Amino acid sequence: MESLAKTLRNLHQKSKSYQPMVARNISDNEIIEQAECCVQKFELAPDKSLTEMVQSEGGIVHIVGFDDFCILHDDDINILENSIYVHDIHQDAGANKFDIILSANCDSYEHRFILAHEIGHFILHRDKGRCYANRLKNSKNKTVEDEADLFAGSLLLPEKTFKDAYKSLDGNYGDLSLYFRVPWDIIARRVKRLRLGIK
Ligand SMILES: [Zn+2]
Question: How far is the CA of 148 from the centre of ligand 1 (A)?
């Protein structure tokens, strides 16, 4: 096993020749449909981790902290934090098709949503070539990030499951956050999107 520092250094080197992911510009319904297909395929549930899904798609998740980043220059840290690098997707089954980098500064609820977001990039935005997505670096390309966010919301908080939970938990954001194991603001965003709580 190569060390995390070595992996980071390699990814950072490679990233210079990778292309930023581009938005699909497909309808919201198509994105939601793709996410719900994944929920079925991987039998996802609020208490189930996303690790199995990532592994079976050929991905590796790295959680990196400040010490790991010490090998890089300050300016380069943003390039790697909370991002995805998709390599050759035509490799054999079992090969490393993509790497996801999560920041150790986030808590487990934030990790769950960011991981779902990065999986969204892999499902929606992977291309024939090598590509990457990073929220900070992609700030000019809001659509690609919005698409991944919609995918993540639909993957972790599928409409029917979410509406049922909202009803049984009396719309309490704190309880919903505990149940779905995502941050409070993600619950708020989902409530707004599904127009719940509007009398
Ligand atoms: Zn993103």
Answer: 6
**Which pair of structure tokens corresponds to residue 7?**
């992996």
107-129 pLDDT tens trace? 999 999 999 999 999 999 998 78
User: How many angstroms separate the CA atoms of 137 and 132, rounded?
Assistant: 10
Contact criterion met (CB below 8 Å) for 124 and 34 = yes
Question: Is the pLDDT reported for residue 148 higher than 90?
Answer: yes
Ligand 1 centroid, distance to 143 Cα (angstroms)? 10
Q: Which amino acid is it at 133?
A: A
Cα of 31 from ligand 1 centre, angstroms? 15
Q: How far is the CA of 109 from the centre of ligand 1 (A)?
A: 17
pLDDT at 5 over 80: no
Place of tokens 């505990």: 178
45 C-alpha to ligand 1 centroid (Å): 22
142 residue type, one letter? K
**Strand-pair category, 98-103 with 83-86:** antiparallel
Rounded to 5 degrees, φ, ψ at 52 are -60, -40
pLDDT score for 127:
82
